[in-house]
Amino acid sequence: MTSIAAESVSTILASCKQTRFHIESPNYRELDVEGLNITVTSHAAGEKAAKGKGKGKAAAEGTEILSNAKLRLKAGSRYALVGRNGSGKSTLLRAIAEKLIPGIPEATRVSLLQQTGIGPANAGEPVQSRSSGGTEGPTVLEDVVDKATAKSDLEREISTLSAGVNSTDPYGALRALRRLRHERMEKRLFVLDKDARLRSGARGLQARKALVEYEKAVAQSAALNEQSADDISPETLQAETQEAAEMLADLQLQVEPSRMADIESRAKKILAGLGFTDAYMAKPAGSLSGGWRMRSALVTALLQETDILILDEPTNFLDLLGIIWLQRHLQNLEDLPAPPTLILVSHDRSFVSSVCTDLLILKDKDLTYFHGDLATWESAQAEKKLHLTKMKEAQDKQKAHMQESIQQNLAQGRKNDDQNKIRQAKSRQKRLEDRMGMQVNSKGGRFKLSRDLAGFHFSSRAEIAIPQDDRGVSITLPDPPDLRFPGALISLENVTFRYPPPVKGTTTAKPAPTLQDINLTVSPGDRIGILGLNGAGKSTLIRLLVNDPPPLGSQQTGTVTTHPRLKLSYYSQHAVDALQSLGHANPSLTALSLLTSEVDSALDEGELRGLLGSLGLPGRTASDVPLRKLSGGQLVRCELARLLWRRPGLLVLDEVTTHLDYETVSALREALRGWGGAVVLVSHDRWFVRGVVEGVVDDAEESDAEGKEHEKEEGVRRRIVYKLADGKLTVLERGVQQFEEGMERRVRKLMGE
């Protein structure tokens, strides 16, 4: 069976196996699809496939995401979808959400939060500090309730029927009913049309017949809408007038005040948990910035009644308070009578490990499953590889010994012309070739030739296959330059900073200080983490550190001192937006050409390609793919390359993990943890901060004892975690854990526990 997406997703082709015994499960929270193939093609190739021509060529020209995979979701389970950037995770999620995969019933309710775009450059600013923008349109609260319940559609239908029923025209109710029925039939026609495309063979023929029959019914409905009053019998008029009144009553029950009040109450709780104040809930939804629009979309997804809940990077624009609240909310889904099945994509390992019960791993165009978290899976993979390696080494040693014995017997047999010995040696050689192989199957049980070896002709055992390590992301940070004379890299002494007062309004009072009496010193080799909620002033503090000019009218007191030989590289949380703007301004600009224009012959093309390749932008991806077509994760890699070629002595990183896959986050964490330069890090990713700043080695949170002892001996490394709140910077003696505990207390209070 083959599916071709509708207009908006016409480049996704999906097929799977179905037999005549396949029966749709009434449990829409489960999926069990065999032989799943998904290919992303060009628009032209999709059109050819839609016409039934050039399907082989279309598939060949496309990018294959899955090949003969098994998609199996158990009702109520919480899956973390894991895979590298570019492996096709978002494509798979969209194929599920759009029900482009045969075997997903049309009645399945799927709620999707997808990272379809990047917010504008000011997306990270606190929503309370932004202007309200437009004053028209629904409020934030009204907007999420409407999108989650289709309230506006229901109210439109109620309005249409009410006007007809209350009309002085005796045919008003009938005409209103027929108009609404026709609109609903047209929507149903779209579903049947897609169903006919999804199916082939006998089922496809049946679906196409159903489509043709329904097209006739739609045509008849259109004719009824054009029917004159003279052609309508009194019996028909009475029956359809009564039907209109009953439909109106049913619709009014769906928007019954008590039901809508309950939904609105739930919406308020979710909005509050994700950082919306009461005042901001009442502001126009059109005034939201990019990051807050994503939060609003997340609220809508959580509010909907759904069978499958899909969340693609839901933590990207959340601070730690919002992340912990969402973590608790998703954990509490299991208490529902029929909890939805969750599919989650996130680079935040602490969040994923706390929420998800299972891993869904997209790798090598296949899907594999693991019950447990990422750390357990990685440990299990390492143990499996070690076990198989030892088995193969022992077997190779045994085979070498047997081979030597066979050769000796052959030599002796030929020397003495002993045919029995020669035949015996050849028989042993055959047994060696046929029977030496796997002693256990992939599940750990005893190997059985007829069961565990694919194919019809079983002549030999399968060889022991040791899983090959992926070519991991290798991030090598250049050694920091020699400063020649000692001293702090950056020092802030008693710094107070105020933004200019709002232009609108008549108040002349000074604005409250964003930062107050800040004292901060960054020395060579330091690891400094800055934690705080959105709007606390973290980005403002970072701009002071990197000497980013403040807005006109700002007020600043205190002293900021910088080492005269300091080389500093700054990763802004809006770096991806800036690169996207560059790409759209210059459509032919690539990652390689961008770096070439910036290095000014400091590095040759080979060195630049090596740097980009080590960060996950190899070969033609770096030189041929335009910047505007790179994904968010690829743009982060490009920006990192722009920072690293300068050989900085200090890296200032503001939310650098956003858009990266977990493997790249892990590689960057490991590289930064032992780098000789200094790092100032702002991030809501607890696992990342623990590794980079606190020196934690793994998920068991065991400190790098040898590294810390070495640092203590040399006296060159400080590891400090600060909290920025109410404009003041304070040291967290217990680091990330102390901040996390404070956020958990606030979350419990928000949830009324």
Automatic annotation (TrEMBL):
Superkingdom of origin: Eukaryota
Family annotation (InterPro entries): AAA+_ATPase (IPR003593), ABC_tran_Xtn (IPR032781), ABC_transporter-like_ATP-bd (IPR003439), ABCF (IPR050611), P-loop_NTPase (IPR027417)
Keywords: ATP-binding, Hydrolase, Nucleotide-binding, Repeat
Keyword ATP-binding: yes
Annotated GO MF terms: ATP binding; ATP hydrolysis activity
Region Disordered, residue ranges: 118-139, 393-435
All residue ranges annotated as the ABC transporter domain in the record: 33-389, 490-733
Pfam family, one: ABC_tran
Biased composition (Basic and acidic residues): 393-402
Entry protein name: P-loop containing nucleoside triphosphate hydrolase protein
Gene source species: Parathielavia appendiculata
